[in-house]
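seq as requested:
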Amino acid sequence: MTSLLWIVLGAASIGLSLGLLGSGGSILTVPILTYLLGMPEKTAVASSLAIVGGISLIGALPALRQGRIDGHALLAFAPPSMLGTLAGAWLAQYLPDGAQLLIFAPVMLLAAWRMARGNAGNGNGARKSAWAIALAGTGVGVLTGLVGIGGGFLIVPALVVLLGLPMPRAVATSLVLIVLNSAVGLGKYLLAGGAGLQLDAGVIGLFIAIGGSASMLAGRIAGRIPQRRLRQLFAGVLVLLAVSILLQRLPVQG
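struct tokens:
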């Protein structure tokens, strides 16, 4: 019963964050699975990829119907991002236990900084060079595969700054990129982990169902809530989680 409560609360918080902010919810998934449900670290990372990809797919479908997804941005950003995800997932299998969460904590602090800053911009239509887009896509992909995050908090500003997309299109397009990266990363984890990587399909399904529903609900009310306040609150939660991870893991590593 306690585990079910954590699943409901955790999935709802992930979905609400994705629906209200367009990013950030995925970075909560690994700590929730690890600390609240007691999953082994690598199982939590692989499960996170499945959960994040599923919730993002549910959120992307309405955006696809409304024509808010930028096909040109997908073609430019998706290939290097997916290759980076493969590289990150391959590298993760060689990391010792605890290392992924130690990498995860600074990423959470970066996410908190991004959230506290607010919108990355409104897009001006100016696209950067192909190598800059490829480099950004690869970097986001490596983080996705390495620590099990969707990368939306990095993808959205990259699409705005490098590809000149307005925020609504950047958020919608990022959901599709998260789905692609999560699928690639999960596939790599399953191939590398084999029988030793036991994923709980029931837990994953519940997270996707509850989180997807919360995301769609939040998307409908997002315009009525001050985004700046939401981002600041979320940034504070991320800082607390990151500090907690560092305090628990650094003495062990030493």
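The first helix runs from residue 2 to 21.
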